[in-house]
Amino acid sequence: MDQPFNDGISSLAALSGKPLVINEDRLQGFKVAQFGKTIAVMPAKLMNEVVGMLTVMRNENRSFEPEVQIFPGVITDSAGMILMDAGLPHRLREAGDATCDHKVT
User: Considering the domain boundaries, does residue 61 fall inside one?
Assistant: First the structure.
């Protein structure tokens, strides 16, 4: 708990900047397969930059049709604007850079 969870899928959606839907058969190689049978990962973007992710899953092996992806898409678009307005991506990047600059002696 209170640790980031690397599902192995979100990073693929973040790289492409496009929603990614994976069903049961292709999901088996990923850690999240234990939580459901279908996953949709929606990148939150602002000005073509991915600033967050929203992941939703189904317990049944049924795809997330494009019309079903509209609502999570609206949520991710809104979240992207909120995060950017708050300056969080920039502050997180700065914090990461500061952490990398420290040398352990």
Answer: yes
